[in-house]
Design a protein that fits this description.
39% of the residues lie in helices and 24% in strands. It is built from ten helices and 13 strands.
């Protein structure tokens, strides 16, 4: 092989590798030995943030993107783990976190979730990729995995983002995967129709803070994927203050339209407003939550 031919082959290989890398919309970061966070690599929405624990014994995946992006996510996990996923833990029932369930289950993965999450996916199995994606192992309060020489403790956070939220604590690694109980640096989505509540969301974030220290890494469901205890405290402060501001106007007898016109969350707009949960929608969520009590 001539030098020119070798150079061309190397160039073709490099272009091919780059194309394959660019084709996968996910990227990853190892946050602790054996624990990786996986998240969207570009501006296009591909689903919620995901994490995976790998080791000699088992591969444990936390959430699995949307139905259209699940194949790319599974490829990204395979590149990290080098072997099939044994368990996938769903943090809640939304389709941007459960879309890969069916594909994984057909390959032998066991799907684990809270009791309420299973009930909601039974009503809407398409969000899990079909009936095969319905969780087969459920828990009411906690379940603990003892794998790869580590502990992964899954625990229920009631009526927070939904009524079936689960967070995962890796105590030896000092890592918590919060799922959508943490929208890091942006207004959170509180699914009031799915059993969530502002009070429950606040209580859940406070529980995470109480579990953490200054070195704890908290993996968010959306927004910047890796947070610290201080980041969670900042997000919680915005939610608590926003609720206080809207409640003051509700207590004055103002209507929803009047409160929206007053724009009580204006101070947070530049930093926390985003395409899905705008400042207006966050205000509406506070209003609806407060007036439905």
């Amino acid at each position: 092989m001539t030098k020119r031919t070798l150079a061309i082959c190397c160039l073709v290989f490099a272009i091919s590798a780059h194309a394959q890398e660019a084709a996968n919309p996910f990227t990853s970061k190892e946050v602790s030995p054996g624990i990786h966070v996986i998240y969207g690599a570009g501006e296009k929405f591909v689903g919620g943030n995901v994490s995976v624990m790998v080791g000699d014994e088992h591969v444990v995946l936390i959430d699995d993107a949307m139905v259209p992006t699940a194949p790319a996510l599974i490829d990204a996990v395979a590149a990290i783990a080098g072997k099939p996923v044994d368990f996938v833990i769903n943090t809640h029932y939304h389709g941007d976190h459960t879309g890969g369930n069916a594909q994984l289950a057909k390959d032998g993965t066991l799907v684990v979730a809270h009791d309420n999450l299973r009930k909601r996916l039974l009503e809407k199995p398409g969000d899990a990729g079909g009936a095969a994606g319905i969780p087969v192992l459920t828990f009411s309060e906690t379940v603990t995995f003892h794998v790869n020489g580590k502990i992964a403790k899954v625990f229920h956070l009631p009526h927070a983002h939904t009524d079936g939220d689960g967070a995962i604590h890796f105590p030896e690694a000092n890592v918590i995967h919060a799922g959508d109980v943490l929208f890091n640096g942006i207004f959170p989505y509180v699914d009031l129709d799915g059993g969530g509540s502002i009070a429950g969301f606040i209580a859940a974030q406070q529980q995470l803070i109480d579990m953490a220290d200054d070195d704890t890494l908290v993996l968010a469901g959306h927004g910047d994927p890796v947070a610290t205890k201080a980041d969670v405290e900042r997000n919680l402060a915005v939610l608590v203050d926003g609720r206080k501001r809207v409640k003051a106007l509700v207590d004055q007898g103002m209507s929803e339209e009047e409160i929206l016109a007053a724009n009580p969350l204006a101070d947070y707009h530049d930093d926390y407003n985003w395409s899905f949960i705008t400042t207006e929608r966050m205000t509406q969520t506070h209003y609806r939550d407060l007036t439905s009590e």
